[in-house]
Write a structure and sequence with these properties.
- The longest helix has 14 residues.
- The two termini are 26 Å apart.
- This protein has a domain of 200 residues: Rossmann fold.
- With 289 residues, it is α/β, with parallel strands linked by helices.
Length: 289
């Protein structure tokens, strides 16, 4: 596996945040990868080295509350506005004026929000199975497990949990690979695997008990801010329950110049190393400075 080094920076409110930095020589635009709601920088441990071989530096972020980044003492700060400020802080710390962004799920929402707040910082973007509209089916599935305590005692338990929560998205994954998957989403603490995120991220995601779900905000202006005059690629899992075919069609109609690829027999969200996804990403990156 390709070598990376750890970088840390301080957020505006004093947290220590972490990312993996995969360096590359040359002057090509770097790539910043941002993971989904309950994930971390390890999601890109196979994709980042591939991009690195194309001569691009890759920075894979641990969003606050995940991975090696600090947990926020105020769970209400777990929202895209805060995350965008953290990304802006990362770019300032690393003296990066502009980058290509790859955002999976929540990472794509962060990227769209960044496009509205600091549009000059994004040269191009890959949205991985996310958009300005989200299917309530996928939202319900995610809210059903995020932040929920699990009786995990061993790495075998962790692999079983990983398969139970993600098996529908990856029906063709060999049994032996679920342990590797588990080691991306768990860390070891006190000799036992624990989920590698602050369970309080769910508090800003889930309504109080008995309350109806809040209405989804209108994210179409953010999508327009991202795609207007900027190269964009949408990767959709062919079996995704978060971005269904209708939503994808609306996105493509709203942004007709956006590139598009669908990964068959994969749900939410592709790992981006699938042959179809990687071919599209490689071609997309080759067209950029």
């Amino acid at each position: 596996m390709a070598q990376f080094h750890d970088i840390t920076w301080r957020s505006a409110d004093g947290l220590t945040l972490h990312a993996r930095d995969y360096p590359a020589p040359g002057g090509k635009l770097p790539v910043i990868c941002i993971h989904g709601l309950t994930r971390n920088s390890k999601d890109f441990e196979e994709l980042a080295p591939r991009i690195q071989t194309l001569g691009r530096r890759v920075i894979a972020v641990d969003v606050r509350g995940r991975g090696q980044s600090d947990w926020d003492p105020n769970p209400m700060n777990y929202h895209p506005g805060t995350y965008v400020a953290d990304v802006i802080g990362l770019m300032a710390h690393e003296v990066i004026s502009q980058a290509i962004f790859i955002g999976t799920s929540m990472g794509g929402l962060i990227t769209m929000t960044l496009a509205a707040i600091a549009p000059q910082s994004i040269a191009a973007a890959v949205l991985n199975d996310v958009g300005p509209e989200l299917s309530p089916v996928g939202i319900a599935r995610i809210s059903g497990y995020v932040g929920q305590a699990q009786p995990i005692e061993t790495w075998e338990d962790a692999a079983a949990y990983a398969k139970a929560t993600n098996g529908a998205a990856f029906p063709d994954m060999p049994e032996k690979d679920w342990d590797r998957f588990a080691r991306r989403i768990f860390r070891e603490d006190g000799g036992k695997p624990v989920l590698d995120y602050d369970p309080d991220i769910a508090l800003a995601f889930r309504p109080p008990e008995g309350a109806p779900p809040p209405p989804m905000p209108d994210l179409w202006p953010l999508f327009g801010a991202l795609t207007n005059g900027r190269p964009t690629l949408l990767v959709r899992g062919g079996a995704s329950d978060l971005i269904d075919e209708t939503i994808a069609a609306k996105m493509r109609q709203a942004a007709p110049r956006m590139a598009y690829v669908e990964v068959p027999r994969v749900g939410h969200a592709p790992m981006l190393t699938e042959p179809q996804a990687w071919a599209a990403i490689e071609a997309f990156l080759s067209s950029l400075p």
